[in-house]
Amino acid sequence: MNSNLKKGLCVLSFLTAGFSLFGQSTESDYLIKMDVDKIGPTIQPTMYGVFFEDINFGADGGLYAELIKNRSFEFEYPFTGWTPFGDVSIRSDKPCFDRNPLYARLINRKQLTGTGLINEGFKGIGIKTNEKYDLSFYARTLKNETMKLKIEMVSDKNDIIESKEVSINSKPWNKYMITFAPMQTCSKSSIRITMLTTGVLDIEHISLFPQETFNNRSNGLRKDLAMALKDLKPGVFRFPGGCIVEGTDLSTRYQWKNTIGPVENRPININRWNYTFSHKKFPDYYQSYGLGFYEYFVLSEDIGAEPLPVLNCGLSCQYENIDPNQNCPVDKLEPYIEDALDLIEFANGPITSTWGKIRADMGHPAPFNLKMIAIGNEQWGTLYTERLEPFVKAIRAKYPNIKIIGSSGPQAEGKDFDFLWPEMKRIGVDLVDEHYYRSPEWFLSNANRYDSYDRNGPKVFAGEYACHAPDKENSFLTALSEAAFMTGLERNADVVHLCTYAPLFAHKEAWQWRPDLIWFDNLSFVKTPNYYVQQLFGNNAGTHVLALTKNGKAVSGQQNLYATAASDATDNTLIIKIANTGIDQKKISFILEGLKAGIHAVTLTHLNSSDLNAKNSFETPDLITPKVVHSEINDNKMDIALPPLSFTILRIAR
């Protein structure tokens, strides 16, 4: 680890210097030059984005606003999430939905216990005072008689928060809906359904949504979490993973066609994070596919990001399966390739096309304007390349303008990485997906990683990265290390076209992997210091790289400084991003060559902490947040007192 960062870890009480512009009479320690008229490489609008994978209960129980677990009784154990009482059984004859055929039969013979069901939600059901919640379900009676149900919101103290009655009076399956407006906030409530009349009743697809979702969409997303994504101003949104794209075997791979159409009839899939980590096993972790490819495309549109779907290439997870017979033979790849071509038609095709019509029928007649697609997640070896190649040929033949992303494997170097990069060039992909989960020391020493990359080869997509400290927790140390590294991504924007931190979400009580960008529980969420680094880059991306040098060299580690500069043609500003990973204040003079004479407004945004171990938590969510200072400079010189252990954005009006 960088020696100054090591020292910083030992600083228990260090008075962090405030950010300031200092006067001309104060001597600077460092001189950094920038030529504002020497326009460098274009920074792609997709440069800074987000990557979503359904890990740590990121979809069901997280971003997807559904509050009922196992709403259609389709888990391997159908009562998972439910506590039945009285005479309750699971049946599948004459189902309401052919791809989700299971339903619950309730029989009330005046048992002392009564007959009904209780749903626990995802580590409880979070409800808020005065917000409205719509509960819906499908039901039928066996005879021409009216049956009554009592449906209650119950607190974690077993108090009734609100109670409603519903009459069921149809032998055919019919949909029913009621609305709750609880006068109590509770993070761990439950839903209890009780039969009030004797007889037999079938019930299916029991669903509970807040009325207010992100952009008020039906079958929508949790508003606060989706808004946190939008606030990043992401240029690209990669979905749906990650390792779930591969599946543990091909039967459990992610199949996008199962995730579209009426939400009630989307077949569920076991989530590989149900069982992959034996020490963090969650037997109740499934994918309802309520958050499916249509919803991902709509979310991309809603947050202003380019959609980037990732599809299975005919390989299951190579870590889990060493038997090549578990993979699709190369000569039988046609259905997988057709899935890729059909997805492009689903996203971009006219409403007169087969898949374009399905998109339109779901509520989006206009194309999603898909421009990129990734084939495979982090596969490696000839098993991958011999499957990738026919995908590339087929997509190029039918959709020559679609950019194709291949993989460099699960590591940032080594024999698999060294084999795959030349193969990606030979096959002719447009971008290569690199993944790295590494130490703070690695991130600092690799800030110049792309300085020497081939400028004429495929471009780089840093598709999954996060700094892993020894405890693998989010901290200011990891955030600062990522900020330093990301200056090298931007400085090399002619090579690096996209980058996304991973993973994105983690439920406070149901996580398996850390660090993660955003932590949440049933009612609130926490933005990590790492989130703010991503936000600062995304909100201050700029449009073109500018040369920023110290003693004629890029600022990449000298005296613990890491920096990059850009111009922003949208508002005619200059942007400097600079990380000080040392424990000393740095007095820096910036010479902005070519900046016209006069007074220029400066906005300084900085993220810093005296404690590298500091973390934002549910108790102190705002411990580390960006601070903004407004100032001005005269002519083309800017003198800065840069705090120790800090990441700073300077935005200068031209």
From TrEMBL:
Residue ranges of every copy of the Alpha-L-arabinofuranosidase C-terminal domain listed in the record: 463-646
Gene3D superfamilies, per database record: Galactose-binding domain-like, Glycosidases, Golgi alpha-mannosidase II
Reactions performed catalytically: Hydrolysis of terminal non-reducing alpha-L-arabinofuranoside residues in alpha-L-arabinosides
UniProt EC number: 3.2.1.55
InterPro entries documented for this protein: Alpha-L-AF_C, ASD1_cat, CenC_carb-bd, GH, Glyco_hydro_b, Glycosyl_Hydrolase_51
Catalytic class of the enzyme: hydrolase
Pfam (any one): CBM_4_9
Keywords, sorted A to Z: Glycoprotein, Hydrolase, Signal
GO molecular function, one term: alpha-L-arabinofuranosidase activity
SMART domains in UniProt: Alpha-L-AF_C
GO BP annotations, alphabetical order: L-arabinose metabolic process
Domain of life, per lineage: Bacteria
Protein family: Belongs to the glycosyl hydrolase 51 family.
Protein name listed in UniProt: non-reducing end alpha-L-arabinofuranosidase
Lineage: Bacteria, Pseudomonadati, Bacteroidota, Bacteroidia, Bacteroidales
